[in-house]
Amino acid sequence: MKRRAGHSKPPADRRRRAHRRSDVEPHLKILHTVAEAVSRTLDVEEVLRTAVDALTRVTGHEISSLHLLSADGKTLELRGERGMSTRLREVNRSLPIGAGLIGRVALTGKTIRLDRNYEDPNVLPSAKAAVRREQIRGFVCVPIHSRGQILGTLSLGRKTVEPFDKPELALVQAAADQIGLALDNARLYSESLHQLDELKRAHAQLIHAEKMKAVGELASGVAHEINNPLTTILGQTHLLLTHPETTSHVRDRLGIVAEEAGRAARIVQNLLLFARHYTPERRPCSVADQARRVLELKGYQLQQDNVRVVTDFASCPFVWADENQLQVVLLNLVQNAHQAMAKHPSQRVLTVRVWPSDRHACVEVRDTGPGIPDDALPRIFDPFFTTKPPGEGSGLGLSVSYGIVAELGGVLRAENCEGGGASFVVELPLGEPAA
């Protein structure tokens, strides 16, 4: 019987193609599993955890680790691992860039593959004993990068003598590319959320500034109209108090009139200060010195109400401010804290702290009072808004303070403390302002 030409070759070709497919298909399935896992979320921590779990689970390797570059770019931080012993995890927690196998991959961006990992001279001395004790033989480390930047490294290890072959190496590199893309997307999403929050905050501050400006213009006109009759009332009252024919009963009544008119005059002065736009006399100013002066001024009243004062003044560079204005701000905050604790039954402690932070001088005035109601917190700096009973507050002290701090280029914020009470923090730029 004659053999037909070409009868034996096609079956061999088909066998080779089938063998190649049998090698490729599992790797494609693994890569698909990893890609699907890391693309489900835009949370960085979730991407890291999911990537390591998926890659180790579907490839069957005993050990895996994922390192990311630190913010300063000098070290690699362990952000995900699977199968590591306590000792191995500890020595891999933070690795210097350029040192050891993983550090070299992060520095050069070149993949490293080893068949006898524990015998390699480039293994970090701190890790060599742990690697030898656990008999980690096969080892591969690939860079994680995105848009031309190295983000970290992905490492796999096995204890069997079977080395990593080229298809497995290609699989790990492709998985690292998928992880890099997912991390980049997650970071972009996180940055977008942060920028959106900043935009919302800036928008709220702009609305508040416009509202303050409008109220200031209205307050200025009203204050000037009220100031003249108040001056007349006070003058006439004092004349009547000194008149020889004024009886003691009338003198007592006139004293009440003078006291209330004086209080109204102080409110008018606050209105004028709130509405006034002028360039204060600014010079180098110590925040701690102004805080001490205010506490000395209020010392007797605080002592009378059994308020214990705690101070913590760290060394802090000067700010460029008007001393009188700064004293007005601190006095308003201290008085506000004092009034909040005056009728509160708990222990009364006033804490005043000063410290430098990120090119700013920070001052905190904290009390142990009842705190600020949640519905009042967003409006606490609004003009004429007060949580005090009628007749005990004009609602201008915090508004005036807010305006002064904003004019100095700083920030005044309020919040409730976890243990109770309220905290007001002033942040003022350090040093002389740029020309």
Name the helix and strand elements from N-terminus to C-terminus, one letter apiece. HHEEHEHEHEEHHEHEEHEEHEE
How would you describe the shape?
A: elongated
Radius of gyration, whole Å: 36 Å
Number of domains: 2
CATH topology of the largest domain: Beta-Lactamase
Helical amount: 40-55%
Averaged pLDDT: 78
Q: What would you give as the CATH superfamily of the largest domain?
A: GAF domain
Number of helices: 10
Counting helices, strands and paired strands, the structural category is alpha+beta
Oligomeric state of the chains? single chain
Which blocks of ≥5 consecutive residues have pLDDT under 50? Answer: 1-9, 15-24
CATH architecture of the largest domain: 2-Layer Sandwich
Q: Cα distance, first to last residue?
A: 104 Å
Task: Summarize the structure in short.
The protein is an alpha+beta fold and 435 residues long. It is 51% helix and 19% strand.
Description:
With 435 residues, the protein is α+β, with helices and mostly antiparallel strands. It has two domains: 12-189, Beta-Lactamase (2-Layer Sandwich), CATH 3.30.450.40; 278-435, Histidine kinase-like ATPase, C-terminal domain (Heat Shock Protein 90, 2-Layer Sandwich), CATH 3.30.565.10. It is built from ten helices and 13 strands. Strands 3-2-1-6-5-4 form a six-stranded antiparallel beta sheet. It has a five-stranded mixed beta sheet with strand order 8-10-11-13-12. The chain has a two-stranded antiparallel sheet with strand order 7-9. The longest helix has 77 residues, at 166-242. The protein is elongated and about 115 Å long. The chain starts with 8 loop residues before the first helix and ends in a 6-residue tail after the last strand. Mean pLDDT is 78; it is low at 1-9 and 15-24.
